[in-house]
Amino acid sequence: MRKIKIFDTTLRDGEQSPGATINHREKIIIAKQLEKLGVDIIEAGFPVSSDEDFKAVSEISSIIKKSKIAALARARENDIKVAWKALQSAKKPRIHTFMSTSDIHLKEQFKISRADALKMSVEAVKFASDLCNDIEFSPMDATRSDVPFLLGVIEKTIEAGASTINVADTVGYSQPAEYGVLVKKIREEVPNIEGIAISTHCHNDLGLAVANSLAGVANGASQVECTINGLGERAGNAALEEVAMNLYARKNFFKAETNINLKEIYATSQMVSSLSGISVQRNKAIVGENAFSHESGIHQHGILANSETYEIINPKIIGKKTKLVLGKHSGKHAAKKVLEEMGFILSEGQLAQVTKKIKDLADKQKIVLEEDIVAIAGDVTKELKKEEQRVVLDELFIETGNKTRPKAKIKLVIDGKSVEAVGYGLGPVDAVSNAIKSVIPQQIFLKDYYLKAITGGTDALADVVVKVSNGSGKIYEAEAINEDIVMASAQALIKGINKALAKK
Ligand SMILES: [Zn+2]
Known about the structure:
Elements: E1 2-3, E2 5-8, H1 24-37, E3 41-45, H2 51-63, E4 68-74, H3 77-86, E5 93-100, H4 103-110, H5 114-131, E6 135-140, H6 147-160, E7 164-169, H7 176-189, E8 197-202, H8 209-218, E9 223-226, H9 240-249, H10 251-254, E10 256-257, H11 265-276, E11 293-294, H12 297-305, E12 323-324, H13 332-341, H14 348-365, H15 370-382, E13 391-399, E14 407-414, E15 417-424, H16 428-439, E16 445-453, E17 462-469, E18 475-482, H17 485-503
Parallel strand pairs: 1-10, 2-3, 2-9, 3-4, 4-5, 5-6, 6-7, 7-8, 8-9, 11-12
Antiparallel strand pairs: 13-14, 14-15, 16-17, 17-18
The structure holds zinc ion.
């Protein structure tokens, strides 16, 4: 088994993600988690770029003991000096310097010749290796560079003291087969490459960052640069969790392994997502909300029998549970299992009621989350027995708008007799409440009304809790869940009324 080093650049390349904001305190928290995750090298920042980056690299250097700390520097003496200064307290420091090698960058951006670029690269590496014994050099935009020129730069920078060469697909242009060939060429044709680590740094502009990184590994790269959740410039960098899990799940194919503590993957992903403010795409591989969720009844049945039927990775390995999403394709078995895990012990009748409600809800809002299920089960188990319900809602009609006085027409069955009523109010809920109160056999007072959206979105379930009293001083509480706020309110109110009437 070859060892593949994981170089995490969440705090440098990832921090450059448009929309990401990671403050100083958060960087420290993430760095500690990356060490716990078993990352070999943490790129903590680009010290010359800002005081904040300098401070972050410097503090992370003094805290982190197990992982190496890398600091980025352009191929300039001052950048390298500042990077080295920031790394002073690092137990295992690395200076990472870079210079473009592609003609488009050299001509259009830097306005220098290939010869100048080579000279600057070599001088920078020499200068850095006088300070630090671990130097990484990145030929920027390597994948769009003239190959013979690139190989020459690599040879000369190794001669100057670089011990890691990072083949940067800076603009995410390469294809896996092509990238693999390039890494292989470097390994076979650079005369002094023996003992030097070849690293990948692939961007995801064409969705190939992880594929390209793995093609690099398959062709001899021994370090992968990546970020948590694939954060990074533009479409991002290679996702650490995907790289690590490919190498884990297909160990026999790659004949390679990493030092990543897989159990920390999910927690790290969640942490970076919440601290960076960039949420993880729901269907993202490995760490997405749906990555280990199964909705179809056939798949759920298989998973319950043996998880390997539909899962190539046991989610426990990354510190996550399999989640059975209950939807309209789900059966009673799955509902029962989920509810039992949540601590609900239901009778057959209640279970059937819950399953039906889940399916009804799934028809309307597509996804039923655990919170929804808890709410539904809680609601069902709290329901009064049928014979205790003196008031039953049959039909409800609402008229409302910005130029209309809210009006509710309601049909109730009270003690077996159908009754109709109309009510007006300040809003639709108030109108419904007035309509109901006008026909029930006893005066009921609404003491408290509380509404909350259980899940986010305009299609979220509404949870209404009411407190009613019949004037005797005793308060009755009732709760109802519905995807319609007015319906939830009407149901809660009727439940409360039934309790008040039943107790009488
Ligand atoms: Zn990058």
